[in-house]
TrEMBL record:
Entry EC number(s): 5.3.1.17
Record keywords, A-Z: Isomerase
Organism taxonomic ancestry: Bacteria, Bacillati, Bacillota, Erysipelotrichia, Erysipelotrichales
Entry protein name: 5-dehydro-4-deoxy-D-glucuronate isomerase
Isomerase among keywords: yes
Length: 288
């Protein structure tokens, strides 16, 4: 587990490209038959990737957590961006198709990841935050009907179409984990897909002092990239982000991007407020 510390916006103003990337960008999350995790001191989020190929991978607490098991004091959300897979949690096997998700509450002890095919392995993107109570496990189905008691379909009001092709920001936000659909202590997760011809996400942009966020960009060919914009609204910086790379966004930072083509990204948030619309919008004319 890699540990990343927090930093002040006063310090970030003086970072060069190398330092910005070291502090905020995670260049590789998916390794064959490994679970790669990053522990950020910003709101204590842990995020990472699990890519089982031909064998099962068990989620361990690691020395960094000083816990008997990973979810002793935490909750976990995941979205599969690879081939079909299975997550077994305390003996219950959840089949997780591509673009489907899973929420596991505090107290879940044994968590194992598997792929259905070695040729097309699952890629489970994970987000975890501290938790104070246990909520029920839920499988989140993006485009399928519920089959099991633990299944949740994404509600129509949580599939939100925004923007226009004329503004290059026609996109659909799919909200997976949030109050009213999948209950959690603080974790929220979702996935945004940009339509062909659109490249801008989260624009007009915003900040939200009461929670932080991590973006995972994917569905990008090898020669494509996203210019991810960060920093205070009047002191913006940028990072060049490639396929399946993640960016840490502190509460004081904007988080928006413009790609060399359309793409998809997963957002994961932790903090004290689960009101999705609790954000401080930044007017386009005020960006610097």
């Amino acid at each position: 587990m890699e540990v990343r510390t927090a930093c002040s916006p006063q310090d970030e103003k003086h970072y060069d490209t190398k330092r910005l990337r070291e502090e905020f960008l995670v260049e590789k999350l998916f390794f064959e038959n490994e679970i790669k995790l990053v522990y950020s001191h910003i709101d204590r989020i842990i995020f990472g990737g699990a890519m089982p190929v031909g064998r099962a991978l068990k989620l361990e607490a690691g020395d960094e957590l000083r816990a008997n098991y990973f979810l002793e004091r935490r909750e976990l959300g995941l979205i599969n961006i690879g081939g079909p897979g299975v997550v077994t949690a305390d003996g219950v096997a959840y089949e997780i198709g591509s673009r489907d998700g899973l929420y596991l509450g505090q107290g879940t002890k044994d968590i194992v990841f598997e792929s259905e095919s070695e040729e097309n392995p699952a890629k489970f993107y994970l987000c975890s935050g501290p938790a104070h109570r246990s909520y029920p496990a839920k499988r989140i189905l993006k485009d399928k009907k519920a089959e099991q008691p633990y299944d949740v379909e994404i509600l129509p009001e949580n599939k939100k179409e925004l923007g226009t092709l004329e503004d290059s920001n026609h996109r659909t936000i799919n909200k997976y984990i949030l109050p009213g659909q999948v209950e959690s202590c603080q974790l929220e997760m979702g996935m945004t897909h940009l339509e062909p011809g659109s490249v801008w996400n989260t624009m007009p942009c915003h900040t939200h002092d009461r929670r932080m966020e991590v973006y995972l960009y994917f569905d990008l060919p090898e020669d494509a990239f996203v210019m991810h914009y960060m920093g205070e609204p009047q002191e913006t910086r940028h990072l060049v982000v490639r396929n399946e790379q993640a960016v840490i966004s502190p509460s004081w930072s904007i988080h928006a991007g413009s790609g060399s083509r359309n793409y998809t990204f997963i957002w994961g948030m932790v903090g004290e407020n689960q009101d999705f619309d609790d954000m401080d919008e930044v007017l386009m004319k005020d960006l610097r």
